[in-house]
Each structure stands twice: as C-alpha cells, then as structure tokens.
UniProtKB/TrEMBL annotation:
The keyword Transmembrane applies. It is a multi-pass membrane protein. InterPro entries: CitT-rel, SLC13A/DASS. One of its GO terms (cellular component) is plasma membrane. Pfam families: Na_sulph_symp. It comes from the Bacteria. It comes from Fusobacterium ulcerans 12-1B. This is Divalent anion:Na+ symporter (DASS) family transporter. It is found in: Membrane. Keywords: Membrane, Transmembrane, Transmembrane helix.
Length: 479
C-alpha cells in the first residue's frame, strides 16, 4: 500500500473507530447510578472527542452532527437545549472579539502596538514569548475575566505573527505562542483569587465549611510559587516541543532593523488608530472594573455586554473604523463551539460527569490510602477533572466540598488541601471546548486539537506536581 493510500485510509479508520466507540458506550448495559440520558451524552461526547482529535472531517461538521444527534437520540429532553447554544453569550463574545481584532488590524493600531512591544522588549522570538507571559500575569490582577484577557492579548499576538510571517497551521512559533497564551492565562488566573468567579466560589466553600478565614493575600501568596514553577517548566517544555530555531532564522537576522523601519513608516497615529485606541481602552476599563461598577454607577456591564458594545463602536459610521464586510468573523468556529458546548452541557446536565467522577474516586479507593497519597491523588483529580467537566464552576461546586468532607473524614487538614486543590481549578488547558479562552485562541488557526491536547496534558502533569510540592512544603506558612 502506498503512502497516499495509507493517508487516505486514516480518516476512514478514524470515523469507523469513533462510530464503534459510540455504539459500544450507547449499547452497553446501563451502569448502576447512571441515567439513560447520561449514557447517551457520554457516548456522543466520546464520539465527538475522537472526531475532533483525528479530524477526518472538519471539526465544525462534527459539531453539526452532534447538535443534530443530541435531541434525536434523547441525550437532551428538548431540541432547544442543543440548538440554542449558537446563541450563547460566548458566541457573541467571540464575534465581538473578531470584530475588535479586525478593527485593530485595519486601523494599524494592532501593528503599532506589536511593533512597539517587539522593538523595545523582544529582540528574539523567545523574548517575545516571555513578554506575553508577563502581560498575562499583569492583566490577571486588573481584568477579572479569563476570556476578556484573551480577547485583549490575542489581537496583538496575531499582528506580531504577521510581522514574523508565521503561517497558521505550519509555524511552530505560531503554535507555541498561541498555546502558551492559553496556558499562561490559566496559570496567571490561578494566582489571583478574583481572576475567575469559580475561585471566589471555592474560597467561599472553604471558609464556610471549615470556619477558616482565608482571604485574597493568603490565596495570592499560597498560589504564586506553584504558578511560577509550572509556568517556567511548561515554557521550557514548549520550546522543546515546538522548536522554531530554523523557522525564523532569515526573518530574525534583520528583524530589529526591519521592525524599527516598519514602525517609523507608520508615522504619527492616524485618526482611525486613535479611534481604535479609545475603543480598546474603554473595553479594557470596563472589563477591569467589572466588580466595582455596581457600587460606582448603580449598574454593571457584563463582559459580554462590554464586548458587544465595543463591536458596535467599531462598526458605527463616523465613530467606528471598519465596515461589516471588513470584519473577519470565523463562522465555522462559531458552529464548532456551539456543538462543543451542546455536548458538554448534555454530559453535565444528565449527571454523566458526576457519575464518572464518583466512580473514579471509588475505583481508586481513597479511603485505603495514606494521607499523603490521598492529597496527591485529589490534587491530580482536581486538575485533570476538566477533561470531563467543561465548567470551572461545576467542578468547584462538586469537587471542593467533596475534598473538604473527605479531608475531615480522614483527619487531613481540610483548609490546606482544599485550598491547593482550588488553585488547580483554573487548569482548563487541554481541549478547545474546555474554556472560552481555549476556543478564542484555537480560532486563530495556529494550532489544532491534538497540539493543545498533548501540550496541555504535559503542562497539567507539571502543574499537578507543582501543586503537590507546595502542599507539602509551602501552604502551611500562609494559612
């Protein structure tokens, strides 16, 4: 068999494999404690996962199949539960982000910002990667939304990749900077308690159910060492996985001169750039002050409302800087996301995810382990549980009270263990559907599902080890 024939055979085998797994789960005897809807949703979720990774057909087509099958096989009770996902707020947020990105690109504001950053702080591609690590950590303190931070950073990265002539899907540097955008967003989030609502919820569980008084600074000081250690090791691993030494050799040899010349050629800021900058700064201000707007103004503008407002301003005649035709909106990604959220919600709502976690804990036999092994196991489960749960809030609601209860039962300090496990809630970095941030970066086209899965699993393992380390050595000094 020739190489071409083998290559053509792979998609067919992938589809056959996905269908076999689907029917194997769907037709197996119903496990005790699992609902029929949960069995059907888990079968569809597994089928979709195989198809998204193997990509025998475009991923948006798999999502269309999923949305069609969810109500047909009874995985959801109502058709609207599958079809309405295209109207989710995240879809609007993604559309708005693409419009904002287009505005920054068309006005040359994004290019100007990228050129300033690269000429002043990043003389090499590796330095560029480091710059965006710092940007992610800094923004985590001021913008209490993981998606909002990704929406601010991604447009700037896209312009830099354009400067470096990095081709989507082919450039290792492009893959790396986007994948590290996903990961550093999560690592930085784990440091700042207010960087995602799930962490605030987790702290509420800890203080309420243990009588502790853990606060903002205890969270910050407790989490920072694990985040920095994970960031550094994952950064080095990424450089090895996606080596780009030869890829940018010709570009970087005269990069500084070329970039400075491009910056000079832009001249002073144009009117459109100033308009785009005002819209960009307004967006940043509204996202950064989301937790205080109710007290200041008597009302609150949500992350999604802010994004749609920014989109409107970018498109309004006389105020905006682009037309609708100039907005580069990737509708295939919208359809893919709709399917991903539909099947993810079906698994959560049917109880399939909760059943899987419960069986995993019982299978492991936590009550028969030493306290140290229990702690490490729970930390790993918390981090890797996002492979089943697509919602940080759902994971927090199920796992953190369970960790607290189990710790009390076994005589383990519940505050220390639950707090360290809570740091791992932010690690949603292995597949596009696992967070809105993943979906936004995935939509750039620079990496595929397999890239994120491989790098994400490695970084989750590193993060789990880092969390285990601070549990045994550091956390007792800050609580």
């Amino acid at each position: 068999m020739s190489d071409t024939q083998k290559k053509n055979l792979v998609p067919i085998l992938s589809i056959i494999g996905a269908v076999i797994v689907f029917f194997a789960i769907l037709l197996m005897p119903l496990p005790q404690g699992m609902s029929v809807a949960a069995q059907k949703s888990l079968a569809l979720f597994t089928f979709a996962l195989i198809m998204w990774i193997a990509k025998p057909i475009p991923i948006y087509q798999t999502s269309i199949i999923i949305i069609l099958l969810l109500p047909l096989i009874g995985a959801v009770k109502k058709q609207s539960q599958a079809f309405e996902t295209l109207g989710y707020s995240i879809i609007w947020l993604m559309v708005a982000a693409f419009v904002l990105t287009s505005a920054m690109s068309a006005s040359n504001l994004g290019k100007r910002i990228a050129l300033i950053l690269t000429t002043k702080f990043s003389k090499t591609p590796t330095q560029t990667l480091i710059v965006f690590v710092f940007i992610n950590y800094i923004l985590a303190f001021f913008v209490p939304s993981t998606t909002a931070r990704a929406s601010l950073i991604a447009p700037i990265i896209l312009v830099i990749l354009e400067v470096y002539k990095a081709v989507p899907g082919k450039s290792n540097f492009g893959k790396l900077i986007m994948l590290q955008g996903v990961q550093n967003n999560a690592f930085a989030t784990s440091v700042v308690m207010t960087a995602t609502s799930a962490q605030v919820l987790a702290l509420g569980f800890i203080n309420e159910q243990t009588g502790a008084s853990v606060g903002y600074m205890s969270w910050l000081l407790g989490s920072l060492p694990q985040a920095l250690l994970t960031t550094i090791i994952a950064f080095i691993v990424g450089l090895k996985l996606y080596s780009h030494k030869n890829e940018l050799g010709d570009v970087m040899s005269n990069a500084t001169i070329s970039l400075k010349k491009q910056l000079a050629d832009l001249g002073p800021m144009s009117l459109n750039e100033k308009k785009a900058l005002v819209i960009f700064m307004l967006t940043l201000f509204l996202w950064a002050t989301g937790d205080y707007q109710q007290a200041w103004f008597g009302f609150k503008i949500s992350t999604e409302q802010t994004a749609v407002l920014s989109m409107l301003l970018c498109l309004l005649p006389g105020i905006g800087v682009i037309t609708w035709k100039q907005a580069n909106i990737k509708w295939d990604l919208m359809v893919f996301s709709a399917g991903a959220y539909a099947v993810g919600n079906a698994v959560d709502n049917s109880g399939g995810a909760a059943w899987a976690i419960d069986k995993l804990i019982n299978f492991i036999g936590l009550d028969k382990m030493s306290h140290s092994l229990v702690a490490v196991t729970l930390i790993f489960i918390t981090v890797f549980s996002h492979l089943i749960f697509t919602s940080k809030t759902v994971r927090t609601t199920i796992l953190i009270p369970a960790v607290i209860a189990l710790s009390k039962q076994l005589g383990i300090d519940p505050v220390a263990l639950a707090l360290v496990c809570s740091f791992g809630i932010a690690y949603t970095i292995t597949l596009p559907p696992h967070s809105k941030v993943n979906t936004l970066y995935f939509g750039t086209g620079y990496f595929d599902v397999k890239d994120e899965l491989v790098y994400g699993l490695i970084s989750c393992f590193i993060g789990s080890c880092s969390l285990s380390l601070i549990y045994f050595t550091w956390i007792k000094f800050v609580i």
